[in-house]
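Exercise 4. Each item below gives a protein and its sequence. For each, produce the structure-token representation.

Item: All-trans-retinol 13,14-reductase (Dyadobacter luteus).
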Amino acid sequence: MPQLTEKEFDFVIIGSGLGGLACGYILASEGHSVVILEKNHQIGGHLQVYSRDKTIFDTGVHYVGSMNDGENLNKFFRYFKILDQLKLHRLDEDGFDVIRFDDGKEYDYPQGHKAFEEKMIGYFPEEAQAIKTYCAKLKEVCSKFPLYNLRTTGESYQTDQSLLQLNAFEYIASLTSNKRLQNVLAGSNQLYAGEKETTPFYVHALIVNSYLSGAYKFADGGSQIAILMSRRIRELGGEIHKHKKVVGASYHEDGNISHVELENGEVVRGKQFISNVHPAVTIDIFGPDRFLSVYRNRITTLPNTISTFLVHVSFLENSFEYLNHNIYQHHIEDVWDGIDYEEETWPQTYFICTPYLSRNTKFAESMSIMTYMKSCETEQWAHTFSTIASPGDREALYKAFKKDREEKVLNRIEQVFPGIRQKIKHVHSASPLTFRDYIGNKDGSLYGISKNSNSPARSQVNTRTRIPNLHLTGQNISMHGILGVTVSAFVTCFAFVDKNELIKKVVNA
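Answer:
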């Protein structure tokens, strides 16, 4: 294979998260020469997994929605030619998510819109009209997102300011005065780091609707998406290179990028460049002076969603039965308050799941517990850096901090599953610093730039930049999550491929 420096690619893509891989596949399948540059030891971004105690742990993708036959993500995966190879396991039909409160009461989310509506009315019979109105609103809002429905024309959210400004908390509260129902309907808001004052209802609707349309786990880990996508890209002649950190760029006289510069001294030449890293980091890489100060200031001051503290436990053999559902546990009555937690009562709210492994379907080998954590909690170690590609040794104080937080999480989990500590073999965790180092944003943000119902235009990021041949993709463009990032990749590629023909290929895949 020729050296990277000897070739000019049609497209140079920075970052091998799902957004970069999806762009790579789309463009390679249209006959373009493509190279994807990844700084880490592993491709995939949030799709990465790691192994401890001979079991696999997902770092970001714990389950996925819209996977029923004919649903949008199912069709996207068909288009990528990976659906038949994906190892999927369907979650419980009658309750794929369980919303649980401190009083021990549990509320199941069943799969399918009709089943969901009926189940909620069963829990709250006196609130039947509010529930029906809510369910109808989910569908109405989702219908206004063309690509979500695999179309390029028709009614669109972009011309509906009232939809963009509709606040999730306020809308749900307007339907009913029943506080418990309000909190059940918003009970999985950790999926989008929901904030009472700012989260738009469309974010809530798109995500909840997606999981109602087919909720599955990836058997044996979510990294299979990245592995299969990379295989398809290479089959189309595309190249993917790991340990290639982009640190700068050089320009032609007309302001177009001529090549990017790597940390190891190599350069990679291209005609077009797509950045799958956070827009603020993209500005640093390509030179702040290349962007208008108004744009630069807006992007660098936009608030990101909160980060996370992720605890992984491995179990003694055959000691804890596998859960074919997820649990959203709330130790506070208001599910929106967990994001602005008090340190003394942390964690107030968290997500629990047991990964599905095909070699042991009855018992769980591990459990993942994900809770909110502000990046300021690890600020004193922000000067350090550690990944497999660039291992660094963080000081004893940091390790003690993590150990203390692990204990607090385990104390909470013991309330949900009494006696669970006796079944645990090992415990390890990831902090905001871990996510910052591996994903490449500045604060370990879970879902990138936060959407804001108070100023929707401010938090929208265009795929085009002032640099003529630099485009953006990833979770900051349309939405986060597997589906959101996939849609974002298509939006990015519409600049180079006829969008109507491209979506036709997805629909007919």
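Check: The two ends are 32 Å apart (CA to CA).
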